[in-house]
Amino acid sequence: MNLFAEIRTLVTDSLTALVAEGVLPSGLDFAQVAVEPPRDPAHGDMATNAAMVLAKPAGMQPRAIAEALAAKLAADPRVTAAEVAGPGFLNLRLAASVWQGLVKAALTQGTQFGKSNAGAGRKVNVEFVSANPTGPMHVGHVRGAVVGDALARLLAFAGWDVTREYYINDGGAQVDVLARSAYERYREANGLEPEIREGLYPGDYLIPVGEALKARFGDSLLDKGEEVWLADIREIASEMMMEEIRGDLAALGVRMDVYSSEKALYGTGQIEAAIDALRGMGLIYEGVLEPPKGKTLEDWEPRVQTLFRSTAHGDDVDRPVMKSDGSWTYFAPDIAYHYNKVQRGFDELIDIFGADHGGYVKRMKAAVSALSGGRVPLDIKLVQLVKLFKNGEPFKMSKRAGTFVTLRDVVEQAGADVTRFMMLTRKNDVTLDFDFAKVLEQSKDNPVFYVQYANARINSVLRKAREAGIACGDADLANADLAILNHPAEIEMAKKLAEWPRLVEIAAKGNEPHRVAFYLYELASEFHSLWNKGNDDTSLRFIQDGNAATSAAKIALARATGVVISAGLGILGVTPVEEMR
């Protein structure tokens, strides 16, 4: 039940009636007509821009349209007042029964409340994490994993057919570095001193890899050149790292539907096919790029390369796909990989990248635009850094990882639920401070505690009600006399619940899962405020001694709030807490 969508339908039906009556001219497009909360709640419950957006095409003054529309809307029993403001803004006030009905809808629909068909079953691929298989996941990957997984959950909740995908970057030089690093740990497992030269991976996490290599090869690879062992060790080490990464993701509550390998693109004709497709469109040519910005002619050596005319699809400059020596650039397999996703029939693509991939956005969008004929949009979300603190002091590096704090470090200290929620308390493109002490605080300043505390309070109300013999099943509460919920504080609580279905659609269409975390904090604040008002005004307490009917109505409001909190936490991948200890 999206109340805002229902009232928008009322507005457009009223406009259609005005056209039929000759008040408005025919042929008007209502697509830009919106119904949303007013900027100032004192102005009403909802506002519509209908008169403002239709004035010019209708050739009328906006106030004249607003007054005619107001008369139509005021005739609907759901609308208690339709007030024209300023040059033609139209503010609406809704009957208390509308908000009371919203509580009933939440209880009746349960986990379906707020679900949407905005996605209309469109197939969307969400690629996220995609960490190099060279070591355990670090804290930066935590944020990307949480944002990607929460976005996938949100899109599924809003009606998209979602595929979660991990692109294994196992085709580049970094995997050779992994193999050489693992070889040193293999030497160590055989009783020799490892030579962890500059440029190799120093972390202790490769010690088990060295031991596994010893178990498999004994000492047969010692003192052999890397032409003998590099390929085998690269494959073994990268697979062991991927097993560790899968375990890291599982610890965070993240699952993938598909794992795709960069290495699998080489030697299979897939890169060639993607580049040939672009060549067939006249978008591949041999040329010399202009010097990069900031370079002088003295340190710039022009050379002929194979280039993708990405500027034809919105990029700033054309991009190399093949070097002058005939080898592929890093961009070429990425083009092939995205071409593969287009060929798999996805209607939309979303990539979650680290902040250091900002330069890749325009070129990747250009490639997908070209290869899909503009049919498949690609949205790239850049995830900014996470700064770790403990009691206000920077958190120390992980010895096991060598140079960074691992995902396991974070999850083991804070817990998966706290970690997930806190990673969504800022928009993805804003740096996030994560203080291990503060995220475990039991205070209003800790969003995850504040939301979970609201849910625990709701469950405590339900437990006490059952002890008092009040039927608390959702069906029982939905059939309570909800007209009893007429106090302004209770109506405000219901109004906040009414925002949930609209919020889901807005967040999903913008690929912004952080909006769910923000909303849950606001909802919890509204609930705690209502709870605290009951300390002073006993008529607002959820359980009214000796009055089962009134209690049932008030408990229904609390339970409806719990339904929405549980749904929102589910999208964030957080388990609702039923009792705070």
TrEMBL record:
Residue ranges of domain DALR anticodon binding in the record: 451-580
Subcellular location: Cytoplasm
Keywords assigned: Aminoacyl-tRNA synthetase, ATP-binding, Cytoplasm, Ligase, Nucleotide-binding, Protein biosynthesis
PROSITE patterns with a match to the protein in the record: AA_TRNA_LIGASE_I
EC number: 6.1.1.19
Database matches in InterPro entries: aa-tRNA-synth_I_CS, Arg-tRNA-ligase, Arg-tRNA-synth_N, Arg-tRNA-synth_N_sf, ArgRS_core, DALR_anticod-bd, Rossmann-like_a/b/a_fold, tRNAsynth_Ia_anticodon-bd
Arginyl tRNA synthetase N-terminal domain location: 5-94
Pfam families (UniProt xref): Arg_tRNA_synt_N (PF03485), DALR_1 (PF05746), tRNA-synt_1d (PF00750)
A molecular function GO annotation: arginine-tRNA ligase activity
Catalytic activity: tRNA(Arg) + L-arginine + ATP = L-arginyl-tRNA(Arg) + AMP + diphosphate
Sequence motif 'HIGH' region, location on chain: 131-141
Assembly and interaction partners: Monomer.
Protein family (similarity comment): Belongs to the class-I aminoacyl-tRNA synthetase family.
Annotated protein name in UniProt: Arginine--tRNA ligase
Species of the source: Cypionkella sinensis
Organism taxonomic ancestry: Bacteria, Pseudomonadati, Pseudomonadota, Alphaproteobacteria, Rhodobacterales
